[in-house]
Amino acid sequence: MSFPLDIVILAAGKGTRMRSDLPKVLHPIGGRPLLQHVIDTARELGAGQLLTVIGHGAEQVEQRLTGEDIKYVLQTEQLGTGHAVQQALPFLRDNARVLILYGDVPLTRATTLERLVAAVNDQQMALLTMTLPNPTGYGRIIRDQQGHVEAIVEQKDATEDQLRITEINTGILAATAQQLRDWLPQLSNDNAQGEYYLTDLIAMARNSGVGIHVEQPERVEEVEGINNRQQQAALERFFQRQQADALMVEGVTLMDPTRFDCRGTLHAGRDVVIDINCVFEGEVTLADGVQIGPNCLLKNCTIGAGTRIEANSIIEEAQVEASCTIGPFARLRPGTHLAEGAKIGNFVETKKARIGAGSKVNHLSYIGDTTMGSGVNIGAGTITCNYDGVNKYQTEIEDDVFVGSNTALVAPVKLGKGSTVGAGSVVTRAVADGELSIARGKQRNIQGWQRPKKK
Ligand code: UD1
Ligand code: MG
Hints:
Elements: E1 5-11, E2 28-29, E3 32-33, H1 34-44, E4 49-54, H2 58-64, E5 70-74, H3 81-88, E6 97-102, H4 110-118, E7 124-131, E8 140-143, E9 149-153, H5 160-163, E10 167-176, H6 177-183, H7 201-207, E11 211-215, H8 229-249, E12 253-254, E13 260-268, E14 273-274, E15 278-286, E16 291-292, E17 297-303, E18 308-309, E19 314-316, E20 318-320, E21 325-326, E22 330-332, E23 336-338, E24 343-355, E25 360-372, E26 377-378, E27 383-385, E28 395-397, E29 402-403, E30 408-410, E31 413-415, E32 420-421, E33 426-427, E34 436-437
The structure holds uridine-diphosphate-N-acetylglucosamine and magnesium ion.
């Protein structure tokens, strides 16, 4: 691009209809604040300068969204969209093209905006419009006999005839910094809402002999803003469906793309199968052939090729190698590492645990702060007692250990290679290689014992 690009994002409004303590632009779509979506798109466009006009909840917005390239401009009173852009005027670079975006319109495609910006020059500004079956609430695009745009009229200022126009203002426009400097100071608030309307720029351009180039987005969702929770939910579904479609194009099977949620980034290999109601958060990588059952939550984890995750499992900050089996109802907490072919079964919780190749923890166990070798078998109901109420301790389980059911391993403790622990043991001391440890009350059978009888 021959001109530098400055982008102004309007995000000072209150968002009353969200009925929320959180500023509207911080509400999420796909786990990312609305404003973050707009900022990411602006970066994609290669904005040289990113000016964000904030007002309501300014402090929260500034705290939440960081990046050296974002400059915040405070609009202390919300006197209208034109007034909002005025606040950014002093910061615009003289020879820049300027694109105006909205902090509550999250899903505009960069390609649509590129077309808009490309049309701007000294003789022409650019406007993004859309034709809607129900244009209620939006500013209407007024065209002359030749079809050239001559003005925008807001809903509240429109005549009966104008209200019948179905071409609406999306709010998004682009002009040169010079044009904005010429026109914005001339705005008046003599209108139905007593606001300084950015939209009055269009008539000013027309009067100065500057042309108005019009572009339209490919889909209406690109220009939909969020004012209430219903609209947020609707755009969330649209966003998720787009992500689902992209994954299916890459060769992923989604049992139902309408019951898929990714609130982050999901990288998936070939022939991955994802059943319904799974949620992906943060950065998740699924290698080829991974299969995930229904109702699973995966957050910041990598899953190796051919691993199966059965229904209702939760995996967070964990690394799983190839050909493992997890769940149903398993919980892998942060710091879990499963080597190839490991098995974690139902009602098993792991935390900061390295489970060696082919080792099995199949039922009802807690394995925390543990390193486990390969070929280990942990019986049902085994607990690593890693916490004395103050400090955490390590459990070390070497290769080929067999732990009987309902065993408590009181850390710090070590089970040597090939050792065996009898069921029901409370192990408090190290077991050497190959030893059998039985740490439980000895069984006593009393002959001829009589049950008490009712008096
Ligand atoms: C605006 C347009 C309208 C268009 C519609 C599209 C004007 C006058 N009207 O109307 O033609 O159809 O958007 O949704 O521009 N904002 C500020 N400071 C302010 C006022 C608003 O930052 O003083 C921000 C808001 O946070 C919001 C955006 O600007 O993100 C739009 O403001 P809003 O009040 O929703 O404008 P509309 O009345 O919807
Ligand atoms: Mg609005």
